[in-house]
Amino acid sequence: RKWMARKLDTELNANVCFIQISVDGPMSQQYLQRLADHRSMTLEEAHNLIDKYQDFYVPIQMDGSENNTPFIHIINYNESMVVHKMMRSFVGSEVCHFLSNLHPYPHQIYLSRHGESEFN
Questions:
Q1: Average pLDDT over residues 21-25
Q2: What CA–CA distance (Å, rounded) separates 82 from 75?
Q3: Model confidence, pTM
């Protein structure tokens, strides 16, 4: 992550933010089932895919070694959220706001039109 952030900063003058999503407990089974359905694979293939990712993935370190790295850690579909060095800019706070309202649960959206017009 440090190499990637440094490279993007020096070559593109880009601000980098890492987003980590963790799902565990009973929600992990739901997540795996949805992943398998979405990718048209069996549940066993989804388990193998996650196991393969875990061999190479290094989670964001909360021990202070990545204190200069802006990141968002979403735990169990926004059950909790760790935001580090993201609220310093308008874009960072809007990204946090967007991700905090994003969830895979079915919900209703109400659309309304207000006011009067000649086309009512």
A1: 84
A2: 8
A3: 0.72
Number of H helices, E strands in the chain: 4, 3
Cβ atoms of 72 and 86 closer than 8 Å: yes
Integer Cα distance of 44 and 54 in angstroms: 15
Residue 67's pLDDT is 79
Paired strand residues for 98 = none
Placement of tokens 């909790």 in the chain: 80
Strand 71-75 to strand 80-84: parallel, antiparallel, or no bridges (unpaired)? antiparallel
**CA 83 – CA 65 distance, rounded (Å):** 16
- Which ranges in the chain belong to alpha helices (H)? 2-12, 26-38, 43-56, 90-100
**120 band by pLDDT with thresholds 50, 70 and 90:** low
